[in-house]
Design a protein that fits this description.
single chain; 39% helix; Zincin-like; binds zinc ion; 8 helices; alpha/beta
Length: 292
Amino acid sequence: MRALLQFTLDLFDPPAPAPTRTPQQQQPDQPATPLADVLSRVSFIHPRASREVVLGNARVAYEFTRGKRRTIGFVVGAEGLSVRAPRWVALRDVDAAVVEKSSWILRKLSETQQRQDRLEATRIDWKDGVSFPFLGQQVTVQLDPHHAFDGVGAVLDATANDGPPTLRLALANNATPAQIRDAAQAWLMRQAKRIFIERLDHFAPRLGVRWKKLSLSNAATRWGSASADGGIRLHWRLVHFRMSVIDYVVAHELSHLRVMDHSPRFWETVESVVPDYELLRRQLKDEAVPRW
Ligand SMILES: [Zn+2]
């Protein structure tokens, strides 16, 4: 169990040195706080948790459901750990399976939490001078109440100075954060539509498929989807990423018009037009995009 404890502490990068004793073995002159801090920090509580287990130094409260299935299934999502078990499996066997799977569970929970923390750190504070990534490059927002934008409301000025490109929004200097965010989002969604159509038209003939309709999505958990009738849905916030990452998602969804599952044949199809798709796929997963 000590190896597991060490492993978890490493993941959480505690400010205090990793404790090597249990609280009972502590010397009286040692303050108990560092360990207590670490213990209180490492807990993963699923909002619909109904069971709880201690894995190493981590308290894991998980969602537990039973269903028609043959094995015990584990899923770590943004909300935490979910465990599904067949109806006939005893609870103590479920607990044993969770313990057996603990290093994988703790690793996934830590990774997910770190990703959430990164997302939280990138929440945009909408005001004059704020910046956000567009096609992998920082764009700075500038309120420009005097500019006429021909009804569009925003213009990207890449040549204004030597610094980062500026997105000039036709808003008064006392615009509220919500107004600034909405204007920036409207601009980004227009860019998204333009860019996605261009890339769909680029990849579709190369894959020998035809797409019929593009919808911009705002789904919480997926970047894109494809339906058999040729409809493609892409998340508008993909335009935060650089073009090669967008290309991967576009090629991925178009490839589904040929292969509807994620079989080896599907990935071969993706690879035929985006050879480094694995790298791009990982970037899409790991890179934090700003919160709106
Ligand atoms: Zn897919």
